[in-house]
Design brief:
The chain is mostly helical and 760 residues long. It folds into two domains: 483 residues, no CATH class; 75 residues, Alpha Horseshoe (Serine Threonine Protein Phosphatase 5, Tetratricopeptide repeat), CATH 1.25.40.10. It is 71% helix and 0% strand. The chain has 34 helices and no strands. The longest helix is centred in the C-terminal third of the chain and has 35 residues. It starts with 9 loop residues before the first helix and ends with a helix.
Length: 760
């Protein structure tokens, strides 16, 4: 299957074809085997391994495995190629380099631009996202380039029967997992939570068979690894959708009837399938006989997985990606030979879409495909008093905040990777200005629109460079597929471009480009596509130089060692955090603190884990340690109103630091004006010295009675403040309103009587 190079690179192609006669010992040298093993882990294990009771963030194990696998695979490739970067030269390298520069520059500028309090958060949050970009995106891109440049040849054959047999065998063996799995384990027994003898056997078998099936290590082989993972995950998702769960003791339904499969989130499975679908269609168009039926089945299962996710943005992406294939001359030529068969294939796919039944996963909300489309139509209904449709209007609120973030610093934005950190500070004012959004408040990780994502974090400079990357990519795809004699390679470049179009269309409403597994596949496809381009002659000879460029792999090795250490620590941190979290919910504060301290020790800093440790100390009466850990949590990510509120509560009630408490309550209120407790706590501190805090107290409670109009205590306190402000008519109205809500509120009645008899 894999890409025939253009005519101007035929010398390379002939050399690679001759290389198929290389000795077995060279073919299976230990660096090749190790690198192949880690690529199998990246393509097959990461999308499918999933724990529900190991880490609170269910994607952590996938993320750690994937980043370690990418790092090791790239490092081994660098040493095998003597550090030469010649094979990795593509038309996208320069645009990606400049985009990477603005990624780091915007982060660095943000660090110095913000006040000292936010700098630890800026560093921590930014570093996490810089690593994601360098390893999960750029690393995946170059793995895709290397896959084509290393072992690309004229032989495109793949034993689809062997792949189909593997999927049936390995997938079927998981049906026996409920009979073989271990009993439940205590929260602190990490090994027991991870290890299961039968599951370990299946994973060892699966990895071994995948290594054997893809032993040629061509791009086509790794593509089939991804297709196998997508097929198995989609099949499992379909079974979940119809309420057949055979892995976990209870049905997984965190998204209201939407199948999560092994991805933990329906939006990630759907985007993964969007990228794979055009390749499956291309394979179907080129296959013959039983292989064509096999690819048709795979495409329909991927479509079924898409439908079970109920992710409408991905449906839009899938439509865009398949439609884009028709721009390929080679694809149109292939279809003209089989017009009726393609019509049948397309008709079956459309019928599956229209007739797909509703979910059986939920007893309450039971959506269907057409039902989800009908829901979306509600946003077009006229009327001033129409109710908010959360999936749409919440995005509108997020987009509004993203626009405001970009507007504050148009050139470089808020800094790459800092959307989640600063978003809450923009959402608060939007909530104050627009009560319509009160029920839609969220802690957004991303902008849910890739254009606003880039604009808000890297500004106009970043958006311009981002557009440049994709203009170059699509110009390459257009030029590469233009010649009819290049139709074979052109088809695969067209499939890659179609996958990019689909993912981009999906991410106009989705966030999957910023999560590990779908982002890895996306950037690998981008690299595989442009990897079909010509390798310049000057660079070709550089690949044979001996140790001249060892400094490059040495740097990569250092980065790899750091990645291995960092992601191992992340995994340990998350497992102990969840153990402590569960113990805290069981009331075992001593055990929770022990596990959470271990989690904090492993690091790197993670806001939720440290915040939970602060809560455990607060519940145990260790208030000074609680305050210290709340501050450490804010140093990790200062965008959480509840951390500011809890820190302020500790300072006000137990540590007697009233000025610090007021500052923290104010920030909490700015972020979240809908938190009732902050009005009670901050208002009580203001009322201790009303003469000093009269103006901010009036602002606080004037808005508090708008958000909580039935809170009689708020009306009574507001009346008292209006009295001090000598606005007596307003005070009388406030007291009367308090008594209308709570006729037995003695304080309000007494205050009204005093005001009535004493006012001038």
């Amino acid at each position: 299957m894999i890409m025939v190079l253009p005519r101007n690179n035929m010398n390379d192609l002939e050399a690679r074809s001759k290389s198929t006669a290389e000795p077995v010992l060279e073919l299976f040298s230990w660096p090749d085997l190790v690198r192949h093993f880690f690529l199998v882990v990246a393509f097959f294990v990461s999308p499918l391994i999933f724990f529900t009771n190991l880490t609170r963030n269910p994607y952590i194990t996938q993320i750690c495995l994937l980043n370690i696998s990418i790092s090791v695979a790239l490092t081994l490739w660098m040493f095998q190629n003597r550090g030469s970067l010649g094979k990795l030269r593509t038309v996208l390298n320069i645009p990606l380099l400049f985009w990477t520069l603005i990624v780091f520059a915007s982060w660095g500028y943000a660090f110095f631009r913000h006040v000292k309090f936010y700098r630890p958060s800026v560093f921590n949050e930014g570093l996490n996202h810089e690593i994601f970009w360098v390893i999960n995106c750029v690393g995946a891109f170059f793995i895709g380039v290397a896959a084509v440049r290393d072992r690309n040849g004229l032989d495109e054959t793949v034993n689809l029967g062997a792949w189909a047999g593997f999927c049936l065998l390995w997938g079927g063996l998981w049906l026996f997992f409920p009979l073989m799995k271990s009993s439940s384990s205590p929260p602190t027994d990490i090994v027991a939570l991870v290890w299961n003898g039968y599951g370990g056997f299946l994973w060892a078998l699966g990895v071994s068979l995948c290594m054997w099936l893809s032993f040629k290590r061509r791009a086509v082989d790794y593509l089939h690894l991804a297709l196998a993972a997508g097929f198995l995950a989609s099949t499992y998702g379909v079974l979940q959708y119809f309420n057949f769960e055979f892995i976990w003791p209870h049905a997984l339904n965190p998204y209201g009837g939407r199948a999560v499969s092994t991805f933990g989130n329906p939006n990630f499975l759907s985007s993964y399938n969007v990228v794979l679908l055009p390749f499956c269609v291309i394979l179907w168009a080129r296959a013959k006989g039983a292989a064509r039926a096999g690819y048709a089945l795979c495409a329909l299962v991927l479509e079924a997985g898409l439908l079970c996710s109920l992710t409408r943005s991905s449906w839009m992406g899938a439509f865009a990606s398949i439609s884009f294939l028709f721009f390929s001359r080679g694809f149109r030529k292939a279809l003209r030979k089989e017009v009726r068969l393609f019509g049948l294939f397309l008709g079956v796919g459309f019928a599956v879409f229209i007739l797909w039944p509703h979910s059986l996963l939920s007893a309450g909300y039971r959506p269907s495909v057409l039902g989800r489309l009908e829901e979306a139509a509600t946003i077009l209904k006229p009327g001033e008093n129409k109710q908010a449709y959360s999936p749409w209007h919440q995005r509108v609120m997020i987009w509004t905040c993203a626009w405001l973030m970009a507007k504050d610093n148009p050139l470089t934005g808020q800094g790459f990777g800092l959307f989640e950190l600063f978003y809450p500070f923009y959402q608060g004012p939007v909530l104050r200005a627009t009560p319509f959004y009160w029920g839609l408040r969220t802690h957004a990780n991303n902008a849910h629109n890739e254009i606003l994502e880039v604009l808000s974090q890297t500004g106009l400079i970043g958006l311009g460079l981002f557009v440049w990357v994709w203009v170059v990519f699509f110009r390459f795809a257009r030029d590469f597929t233009g010649e009819p004699e290049d139709s074979s390679a052109g088809l695969w470049v067209s499939a890659g471009a179609a996958g990019v179009v689909g993912m981009m269309a999906d991410n106009l409403l989705n966030v999957s480009l910023h999560f590990a597994v779908p982002a890895f596949l996306f950037w690998w496809v981008v690299g595989m596509s442009v990897g079909n381009g010509r390798i310049p002659n000057a660079e070709r000879s550089a690949t044979t130089k001996s140790l001249k460029n060892l400094w490059v792999p040495t740097l990569v090795l250092c980065l790899c060692v750091w990645m291995l250490g960092r992601w191992s620590c992340v995994w340990e941190r998350e497992t102990h955090y969840f153990s402590g979290f569960k113990l805290a919910r069981q009331g075992d504060m001593a055990g929770a603190i022990d596990q959470l301290e271990i989690s904090k020790h492993w690091g790197p800093p993670e806001v939720n884990a440290i915040y939970e440790l602060g809560n455990a100390y607060a519940r145990s009466g260790s208030f000074k340690k609680a305050e210290e850990n709340y501050q450490a949590a804010l140093d990790a990510n200062a965008g959480y109103d509840e951390i500011f509120f809890n820190k302020g509560s500790i300072e006000a009630v137990h540590l007697g630091n009233i000025p610090a408490a007021i500052d923290n309550f104010r920030v909490s209120w700015w972020i979240n004006p809908l938190l009732k407790d902050v009005y009670n706590s901050l208002g009580a501190l203001y009322l201790r010295d009303p003469a000093k805090y009269l103006s901010p107290a009036l602002d606080l409670l004037s808005y508090g009675v708008k958000v909580f109009p039935q809170a009689s205590g708020f009306w009574n306190n507001l009346g008292y403040l209006e009295t001090l402000n000598k606005n007596y008519s307003a005070a009388v109205g406030d007291y009367q309103r308090a008594l209308q809500i709570s006729p037995n509120l003695t304080a309000a009645r007494k205050n009204l009587e005093i005001l009535t008899h004493s006012r001038p």
